[in-house]
Amino acid sequence: MYQLLKKEGAARRGQFDTPHGSVQTPAFMNVATAGAIKGAVSAHDLADLKCQVMLCNTYHLHLRPGDKLVHDFGGLHSFTGWQGPILTDSGGFQVFSLSKLRKIKEEGVHFSSHIDGRKIFMGPEESMQIQSHLGSTIAMAFDECIENPSPYDYVADSCARTVRWLKRCRQEMTRLNGLPDTLNPQQMLFGINQGGTFDDLRVAHMQEIAELDLDGYAIGGLAVGEPAEDMYRIIGAVETFMPVNKPRYLMGVGTPVNILEAVHRGVDLFDCVMPTRNGRHAHVFTWEGIRNLLNEKYQLDHAPIDEHCDCPTCRRYSRAYLRHLFKSGEMLAMRLCVMHNLYFYNTLLERIRAALDEGQFEAFYQTHRLVLDKRI
Fold first, then answer.
1. What residue stretches are annotated with the tRNA-guanine(15) transglycosylase-like domain (predicted)?
2. What is the CATH class of 2-271?
């Protein structure tokens, strides 16, 4: 259940209540692809990093260790130790990114495992069954992820297929949630808006899936190489037609400024591998912009990554020490910088929520939108 607490322009301040706890929105969902944050960060660390939601990958967990094994362990909450809300993606993005290995049919997709090449089939029903085994709080519908740009007619056909698949997902989830051995009989379902960069297809698709009264709605198929202006335009076009009383999730986004711009346009939830991936390569986010800790100027620098940050890394370590760890190939370097970046992202969303609470979001937005993506 989503409660809209306050608005400032299109920006929304809300609370999303789930079977595994409440989420204060706007919120960033921390990506734990295989049940762990890349960079040696565990589910137990996330509580210290202001994390509210953990996101796990259906495709990867299906292949390894296997969703039935996770089910036998009591689901992802028992398996990973994270007790808050967990969102699982449908596996669709991973399946469709393996373009040379897959074949799309109406019933679903035949593809080959990227691990050992074995043949696998996944359709709407299979995706829901896997996510039910994982016991996640929120399951994402199985959709077709197309390339940008794609021909108009193909995108239109793909949108129609995604709607048909969404209806099958909803029917299968209803069946699964009624079974006696289901780990989470209150599992929620989010639908995904597609349509490439065509405004009319995006709007028509959103109107059609909004009628299904799902638990939440995502905007998919963006942040895949198109200009940021196209992404912002699509969000603006679709937002008007998204249910007001349901959470809105922009998938795979993004930089701190992308998030700030999307909140400004009415989005509630985000996820992205950027804070973890960048942290593993010594790129860290700060309130003054982005630092590359490998730069020689940090060799003798006693300051923390960000003097305005109170994360566990900034409280204890200098830029010089972190640079040394990277230069020495120490795994601790990745762990400490990933922890900082996740803390920064979650603090950014915390400050956005506070600004909305105080009616100061527009001022916050104007102050930070030109700074956060700047290279220091």
1. 10-367
2. alpha beta
The alpha-carbon radius of gyration of the chain (Å, integer) is 20
Q: If residue 83 lies in a helix (H) or strand (E), which one and from where to where?
A: none
- The reply, when asked if residue 213 is annotated as ligand binding, is no
Q: Is 309 annotated as a binding residue?
A: yes
Question: Mean pLDDT across the chain, nearest whole number?
Answer: 96
Dihedral-angle region of residue 211 (phi above 0 means left; psi in -120 to 50 means alpha; beta otherwise): alpha
Q: Is 93 annotated as a binding residue?
A: yes
What does the block give as tokens for 42? 């565990």
The pLDDT of 120-130, averaged and rounded, is 95
Query: What CA–CA distance (Å, rounded) separates 142 from 290?
Result: 35
The set of catalytic residues is: 89, 271
pTM: 0.97
Listed by start position, the domains of the chain span 2-271, 279-368
The span from the CA of 53 to the CA of 61, in Å, is 18
Residue type present at position 180 = P
Q: Within the chain, how many helices (H) and strands (E) appear?
A: 15, 16
Tell me which DSSP letter residue 123 carries. -
- Give the span between the Cα atoms of 309 and 287, in whole angstroms: 8
Judged against a pLDDT cut of 70, whether residue 37 lies above it is answered with yes
φ/ψ of residue 281, rounded to 5: -115, 25
Say if residue 215 carries a ligand binding annotation. Answer: no
Position 186, amino acid: Q
